[in-house]
Amino acid sequence: MQQLFHGGVHPEVDSLLTVEAPAFELPAPELLYIPLIQHKGAAAEPLVKVGDQVRLGQRIGDAEAAVTAAIHAPVSGEVRAIDAWHHPDGDTCPAIILENDGRDTPDEALLAPPRDLDALTGEEIIKAARDAGIVGMGGAGFPLSVKLSGSVGQIETVILNGCECEPMLHSDHSVMRHHADKVVQGGLLLRRAVQAKELIIAVEDNKPDAIAALEQAAAGLPQVSVRALPTRYPQGGEKILVKALLKREVPMGKLPAAVGALICNVDSAATLAEACRSRRPLISRNVTVAGSLLGKPQVLHARIGTPFSALIAHCEPKSPPRKLLSGGPMMGRAQYSMEVPVTKTVSGILLMTEEEARAVAPTTNCIRCGRCVKNCPMLLSPCYLNFYSDLGNLPELERLNIDNCIECGICTYSCPAHLPLLQKFRLGKLELGKQRRAAKQRKEGGKQS
Ligand code: SF4
Ligand code: SF4
């Protein structure tokens, strides 16, 4: 098979679901839990207080910071509480808890007449992305307006990323298959916003239906091309995709803009098209609910703030899961509560049986087989990172470029010793981040005194 980047794997997994029909619109629950952090950057501050009545699409959280994203009400109803709640990142986070009145009374902004997409300027498109609170919906969560405003005039190629971020997930697949027109419109808006020359929509070749739908939507648009790539994980990673498509290396610590590329998830692009047209903010999204113990695994369209338990109940679970992940099998994060809510970056929920969770597989010492090194798409040495993680040796982790780890989980997947490598590297990066922040504060404190 043709291979467009180093390493990677092609896991033989079957999510037992299809996207023949559009994603089912899950009814909004009675209570929704809307975290004030659903993006990279500063947390939003609540703009409402307990007891306030809110309308569907009303802005209920925002911040002044340069890097942040607004939060909007996914239903109309009453603010019941603003309190700490479970977050899919594995911690708790302040959340606005809304009681749904079942009426979906829209905010006034949503009643304005639709806008003509062709008439919007680049600045207006960036403002629409900011107003709608759009972030990277593939999992990165970076605010789209910030990405766009920092890239104007520097981008040659806009790439819409339709390479699903993980095996078993079909959320983007469903968007491309059933909303191809919006994906293409969103891509053209992004291209105009940053004044890029071309737009490429990248899709893996195991999704011929999505490729056909996108080709039809892009027919007659010479500046748009749909590119089918050999299916290989983690092609959906930004740096990997740039390498696979453009044959350019994004330098360590830099963004794809450094090599003239802007990457945007296909669902984020479709959401931008809708926000530009109707002013509808990001208040709902596709979520794949997968796992062999579900009677009816499927892609659902759920409001932000809906607890995982509501999505799982709709998919007819045969028994409680041994392990529940937010995300897919490679990068997913284990959850300790079924009441954790869907956020802007949750693209999948995976329920695992005892056997699948490898709950009984014991770890052994590293046997120096080298599989992790062979498969790491970022050309790192996970076995040495493992060694220095165990020693807590942060300078060595830094020297071995742990910052370049894209947390794809391939090393963990490949390791015959069942070592939790990805989890160790996430912790290592967290510790390094803490150490750097402390050093910065000491330096700033020293300057002031
Ligand atoms: S998780 Fe990091 S170290 Fe492991 S294979 Fe992926 S990029 Fe390499
Ligand atoms: S795959 Fe596991 S056992 Fe093999 S070298 Fe890497 S860490 Fe060691």
Assigned CATH superfamily of the largest domain: NADH-ubiquinone oxidoreductase 51kDa subunit
Task: Give the helix tally.
Answer: 13
Determine and state the CATH class of the largest domain.
Alpha Beta
- Quote the average pLDDT: 92
CATH topology of the largest domain: Rossmann fold
CATH architecture of the largest domain: 3-Layer(aba) Sandwich
Rounded to an integer, what's the Rg over CA atoms?
Answer: 22 Å
Helical content class: 25-40%
Beta-strand percentage range: 15-25%
Sum up the overall morphology in one term: globular
Number of strands: 17
Attribute tags:
single chain; 449 residues; alpha/beta; OB fold (Dihydrolipoamide Acetyltransferase, E2P); Rossmann fold; 3 domains; six-stranded mixed β-sheet; four-stranded antiparallel β-sheet; 17 strands; binds iron/sulfur cluster
Give structural notes:
This protein is of the alpha/beta class and 449 residues long. It folds into three domains: 28-111, OB fold (Dihydrolipoamide Acetyltransferase, E2P); 117-278, 3-Layer(aba) Sandwich (Rossmann fold); 371-448. It is 29% helix and 19% strand. It contains 13 helices and 17 strands. The protein has helices at 122-131, 144-149, 171-178, 180-194, 208-217, 238-246, 266-278, 308-314, 371-375, 382-391, 394-399, 410-414, 421-448, and strands at residues 24-25, 31-35, 45-46, 53-54, 59-62, 71-72, 77-86, 92-100, 157-162, 198-204, 224-229, 261-265, 284-290, 298-303, 323-326, 333-334, 348-352. A six-stranded mixed β-sheet has the order 1-14-13-17-15-16, sandwiched between helices. A hairpin with an 8-residue loop joins strand 5 (59-62) and strand 6 (71-72). Helix 1 (122-131) packs across helix 4, helix 4 (180-194) crosses helix 5 (208-217) and helix 10 (382-391) crosses helix 13. The longest helix is centred in the C-terminal third of the chain and has 28 residues, at 421-448. The radius of gyration is 22 Å and the shape is globular. The mean pLDDT is 92. One iron/sulfur cluster binds at residues 376, 378, 380, 382, 405-411, 421-422, 425.
